[in-house]
Amino acid sequence: MSEVLTPPFRRVVVTGVECSGKTTLSEQLATHLGWAWVPEHARTHQDVRSGQVKESTFDALHESQTAAAAQAQATHPGVICDTGDLVLRLWSEAELDFSWHPLMPPNPRVDLHILCPVLETWEEDPLRTLPRLEDRLALEAKYRAHLKHRPHIVAEGDTPEARLQHVLNQWPW
């Protein structure tokens, strides 16, 4: 009798500077693959919406996004997360001048990061704070430095469709 091997559950985090196309790419990728999609929880978190971000906000966001990714394991072969812990870390450094780290590593673990490079266009949004292209490029350099030793793909392309195709051409599974 032969055993049927189930492929391992995969967690992919789409990351990058604000207004870089993370939500668009993460939704497109999840739809294309038939995987679960976890939206960015900061957009709906009370502390963020009220402008009262504190250290515990980052813990709460980590816990809620990790729990949402874990729930996907029951029904999907993988999950695409719109942002993750690297966003929280770099945001905490900019917002509160401390480097946030999760108390517990994410479970399920992150198998792959996808970096969305900065887009030249800027869309106004009450939660966004970096309208200057130079500021967004400087922050992108920090993302690239942090991802240097982690499995990742850079989503190259000028349009959402081109970025999706580039990621799919580099897809490791």
What's the SSE blueprint?
Blueprint: E1 10-15, H1 22-33, E2 36-38, H2 46-49, H3 55-72, E3 78-82, H4 85-96, E4 112-115, H5 133-147, E5 152-154, H6 160-170
Parallel strand pairs: 1-3, 1-4, 2-3, 4-5
Helix pairs in contact: 1-6, 3-4
Describe this structure in words.
- Helix 1 (22-33) packs across helix 6 (160-170) and helix 3 (55-72) packs antiparallel against helix 4.
- The protein has a single domain (10-170), classed as P-loop containing nucleotide triphosphate hydrolases (Rossmann fold, 3-Layer(aba) Sandwich).
- With 173 residues, it is an alpha/beta fold.
- The chain is globular and about 60 Å long.
- The protein has a 5-stranded parallel β-sheet, sandwiched between helices.
- The longest helix has 18 residues, at 55-72.
- It has 6 helices and 5 strands, in the order E-H-E-H-H-E-H-E-H-E-H.
Percent helix: 40-55%
Number of helices in the DSSP assignment: 6
Contiguous runs where pLDDT drops below 50 for at least 5 residues: none
First-residue to last-residue Cα separation:
27 Å
Question: Largest sheet, if any?
Answer: 5 strands, parallel
- The pLDDT mean sits at 93
User: SSE string, helix = H, strand = E?
Assistant: EHEHHEHEHEH
Number of strands: 5
**Proportion of strand residues:** 5-15%
How many separate domains? 1
**Rounded Rg:** 16 Å
CATH fold annotation? Rossmann fold
> Which structural class is indicated by helix and strand composition?
alpha/beta
Instruction: Just give the CATH class.
Output: Alpha Beta
Global morphology:
globular
